[in-house]
Design a protein that fits this description.
About 80% of the residues lie in helices and about 0% in strands. It has 19 helices and no strands. It has a single domain (about 15-195, about 240-450), classed as MFS general substrate transporter like domains (Growth Hormone, Chain: A, Up-down Bundle). It has helices at about 5, 15-50, 55-80, 85-100, 105-135, 140-165, 175-180, 180-190, 200-205, 210-220, 220-235, 250-265, 270-280, 290-310, 320-340, 345-360, 365-375, 380-435, 440-450. By secondary structure, the chain is mainly alpha-helical.
Length: about 450
Amino acid sequence: MRDTITKPAFTYNNFYILRISFISALGGYLFGFDFAVISGALPFLRTAFQLSSWWEGFLTGSLALGCIVGCLIAGKLADRYGRKPGLVVAAGIFAFSSLGMAFSPHLSEFIAMRFTAGIGVGMASMLSPLYIAEVSPASMRGRNVAINQLTIVLGILVTNLVNYLLAGKGTDIWRWMFGLGVIPSALFLIGVLFLPESPRWLVKAGKGVKAAGILAKIGSQDFVKSTMNDIERSVHKAGNVSYSAVFAKAVRPAVLVGITLAVFQQFCGSNVIFNYASTIFKSVGASLDKQLLEIVAIGVINTVFTIFAMWQVDKLGRRPLMLIGSLGLSLIYVVLAFLLKEKAGIVWVSLFVLLAIGMYATSLAPVTWVIISEIFPNDIRGVASSVAIVCLWMAYFILVFTFPVLADHIGVYGTFYLYSAICFFGFLFIRVKVKETKGQTLEELEQSYAGH
């Protein structure tokens, strides 16, 4: 019988936990901003920079290349100096790159600044859920990490809405679309300055007294004692961790699951809808105004279903949501591909696009981040998370770079037949390899995924 069944109930300072989780999750909002702003801006960027399908894909995917660099930086920074300094750096990069994109005179400068923005996104995409997982008690960890996904989708929704409202203001309005990112960047930076450091990192760094003080703000003394004992048992050594340690035999099962889920979250194809919604709806004859309005609707559905996922991730569990999402997307994409091929009415295409987004937002989008933040051992969690998320961003780059090219060769509809097949194979992998993680401490999961 698992320890989680017999452990005593602890009392928690829920307001404090939620406050620091939301502040950290503002990095997710900026992630959502940089991720979504390109969708509304692309129709204007195509004209401003005379983009071919190749350059359109590369411009969109350049964010992911920066994300890869950001993840690698964040992993080492997080393990050497702590989670908080990395979040501060990410906030500064967000602000700088937003202004840089807004004032870019040529395509080369714009791509360089979007790459720089990706560094900030990559750092935040790793550090925000990692930090939240490490400060959250097991019983609410899934919900709290999903807060990061909620702020991502809120960033997407608000950005899509702002893009829609700005769209009729002139051909250079894309500069305002990107430049407005400096406002949430500044708010994030101010908030991060007031965050405590992760208690798990502090123990690893030999600062147990300070860690206990932070844990005392999170929960009761019984919780502090139990958590400190768990952390001290699991942290075998402090200091730097090499990337080779991530592929040691003892942690390989967890790394395999983390990397595969990260790649699958992108190759399932849903982010094509977020980044290329205008292209998808243009293929069935939608006007520019209708394209941008559909992008707003996508943001609304994404937000609503993410909230539902937050409610269910600690109740229904991670594995059932992932299974439902992967199989559901596979079936929805078959229908969507057929509708696109037959040039069906915009209403029908919109319905199945929104169904796909709702399914993704309930499952693969938030739960992948939750699992990645949970399954790696304490002593390598920062570096291991960065490896998994680097793979995620590499997959994202491949996805968004290839979509315009694939759409030219096999049609927009053909790409969704491909994504449907990928989703089915992802369903099989989850069914065989992914274990349930809800309700278990990070230290218990360390043993579970190591096969102990």
